[in-house]
Amino acid sequence: MSSTQQITILGSTGSIGQNTLDVVSRHPDKYAITALTANSDVDRLEQQCLQWQPGYAVMAEPDAAQQLRERLLKTSINTEVLSGNEGLQQVAAMTSVDVVIAGIVGAAGLLPTLAAAQAGKRVLLANKEALVMSGQLFMDAVHSNGAVLLPVDSEHNAIFQCMPAKLPDDPKAAGINKILLTASGGPFRALALGKFADITPEQAVSHPNWVMGQKISVDSATMMNKGLEVIEAHWLFNVPLDGIEVVIHPQSIIHSMVSYADGSILAQLGNPDMRTPIAHCLAWPDRIDSGVEPLDIIEVAKLEFEKPDLSRFPCLRLCYEAMRAGGSATIALNAANEVAVDAFLQHKISFIAIADLIEKVLGEIKQQQISTIDEILEVDASARELATSWLSRLQTV
Ligand code: NAD
Ligand code: MG
Predict the structure, then answer these.
(1) Which range of residues forms the domain containing residue 208?
(2) I need a labelling partner for 230 at 20 to 30 A (CA). Which of 125, 243, 315, 342 fits?
(3) How far away, in angstroms, is 220 Cα from ligand 2 center?
(4) Which atom from ligand 1 is nearest to the alpha carbon of 61?
(5) In this structure, are 345 and 365 located in the same domain?
(6) What is this structure's pTM?
(7) Average pLDDT in the 233-246 region?
(8) Ligand 2 mean position to 85 CA, how many Å?
């Protein structure tokens, strides 16, 4: 890799954003920060600007941007503060930027992540929702603009590491039988089904193996996260749904596997720490220090695997159904899930109502083929409306 790489971090105040800054801080000779972005957390973005002195800072919320601007004016920092979706897209596509970390959570990340792909950047994708929503359109944007798409999501990063060095266009012809996508099973893997209705947001966000943002933590507890990851793997690796098998692996030490025609299964192992996949993507095809301790396999001693129980995790089933239906279904699935998770976190609906709400929306949304980004945004908006109207009827807590 040549000289210093200029980086934009979309969602720098989040869990992925902060882990990225931790890795970057270990390699000042290799990476520099051009832009940092956040939704509304002025305090944290201000603190990050003071530390990193980026050329640009973007706050999606215009009021928050104004506050940040005023605060930075009182310092010696020359960071230019932009706002809104336009600001996000601008720093994702800037000529001076080499690498864009897509670390925004949810549909809000779609347009800026797409802007980075269209500008031919090296895109480090954590924001799986963007790919779930835009699928083929996103992959086409990557290929037609010479972007390099590298998966940060730990499972997809593991699969990428276990695939041939050049990703095959036709995985079957390259001897790839199956992707084995591992899942910890979240905090409720062994909880009695009868107790699911009483699960609180506080219990749902405390994941046994990973520290993550609130939304993905709830998604892990419902296993919606794994369903979104099946869809993500389908688009990233061009493997059909029946070539992707979800395997429960409670220790989260193997981050996923690839099964080959000759009987080999390749796996990637490591401590559950997102700095490993982030460092892998930053340096690829080289390797750099991530700050993560090497795995002590003697201490781990035991790795277990089991089949997922779809009756415990209806969200996983809904993901398969939406993916098979194709077109608008996966966009509606994602939008309904975002509305449902938000309502659950605000104690408005119960844990089991999350899947109910998504199922209602999928049952009602008009099934259509999707060929433009505008169509994606329209389906996203109407699914949110439908979900919101169902909310009042499902308010069970
Ligand atoms: P988080 O909630 O910790 O951070 C989200 C970031 O996005 C914050 O910087 C926030 O300011 C920004 N943001 C939120 N809403 C926004 C909006 N409307 N406009 C602009 N910016 C907005 O989330 P996270 O856990 O870091 O997850 C980020 C993404 O990475 C998600 O898509 C998640 O699925 C994926 N991911 C996360 C992890 C993890 O370990 N945290 C692992 C794999 C994948
Ligand atoms: Mg993951």
Answers:
(1) 161-271
(2) 342
(3) 9
(4) 19
(5) yes
(6) 0.97
(7) 98
(8) 26
